[in-house]
Amino acid sequence: MTFVHLLVSLLICITFTSSISVVPDPSTQDLINRICKQTIDFQFCNKTITSQLIRRRTSIKTIAKLTAAKAWINAIETLDNIEGSLLPKAKDRRSKEEFAACRKAYRLVDAHLDNALKYLYLKDYRFMRAYQALALVNISMCRTSFFHPTPMVYANWNMRILTDIAIYAGKILAPPPPLRTKTKKKTP
Ligand SMILES: *[C@@H]1O[C@H](CO)[C@@H](O)[C@H](O)[C@H]1NC(C)=O
Ligand SMILES: *[C@@H]1O[C@H](CO)[C@@H](O)[C@H](O)[C@H]1NC(C)=O
Q1: What is the CATH number of the domain that holds 107?
Q2: Contact 106, 79 (CB under 8 A)
Q3: For residue 112, how many C-alpha atoms fall within 13 Å in the half-sphere facing its CB?
Q4: What is this structure's pTM?
Q5: Is 144 a member of any domain?
Q6: Which of 1, 37, 129, 135 is the most buried (most CB within 10 A)?
Q7: Which ligand is nearest to the CA of 52?
Q8: How far is C-alpha 90 from the geometric centre of its chain's CA atoms?
Q9: Cα separation of 183 and 95, whole Å?
């Protein structure tokens, strides 16, 4: 199976399972709780992961795959929406500037999550998380304001939490090595 085949099968899998509701078994729900407790919206996170499940018992490896793919797909859809609809239909200068900045940001977000998925496929979870973290940084380049409500306010919030979910799932799958604190000296 090539990388592209993997992406296509993940896409199909997610598209066709999102309407079927599976009730996670206790061990799976426990994993979901551990991930979602770290996010800013437990209910949204719980619903997002549960709606992707195919079986009641799902391993952390599968959850990490599903959530990484979900973030990746969401970045593609968001960029598509900016380029195809928001930017061409922007009415005022402020919205136009915001959407242009978001397009720039989401091109990078998209590229980073592409790489994250590639390293997931290669089972290199440290690189996967590094790229997801870069995506998170670039999401913040798309600046939105609740005082200037545009569709990007929710879209950006959504993208941020989906990326967070993928990162927390990845951290359970492959915990980062412990920090070495003994040899470190504080720099003034
Ligand atoms: C999370 O979702 C599951 C399945 O939909 C539900 O049974 C459970 O009550 C939810 N957890 C919380 C804390 O809301
Ligand atoms: C976005 O990501 C790139 C790396 O791909 C980085 O060089 C750049 O500084 C990031 N932008 C911001 C605003 O963090």
Answers
A1: 1.20.140.40
A2: yes
A3: 22
A4: 0.85
A5: yes
A6: 135
A7: 1
A8: 26
A9: 50
Using CA positions, which residue lies closest to atom 10 of ligand 2? 138
Range of the domain at 46: 3-173
Give the mutation target among 32, 49, 50 for probing the ligand 1 site: most ligand atoms within 8 A of CB: 50
Q: How far is CA 39 from CA 154, 161, 174, in A?
A: 16, 7, 18
**CB distance 138 to ligand 2 below 6 Å:** yes
pLDDT digits (tens, 9 = 90+) for 113-151: 999 999 999 999 999 999 999 999 999 999 888 788 899
Considering only CA atoms, which residue is closest to atom 12 of ligand 2? 138
pLDDT in tens, 88-122: 999 999 999 999 999 999 999 999 999 999 999 99
Tokens standing for residue 65: 């795959």
Q: Considering every ligand atom, which ligand is closest to the CA of 136?
A: 2
Tell me the two tokens of residue 120: 């997931």
Classify residue 180: in a domain, yes or no.
no
DSSP-assigned letter for residue 145: B
Q: How many domains does the chain have?
A: 1
Which amino acid is residue 7, in one-letter code? Answer: L
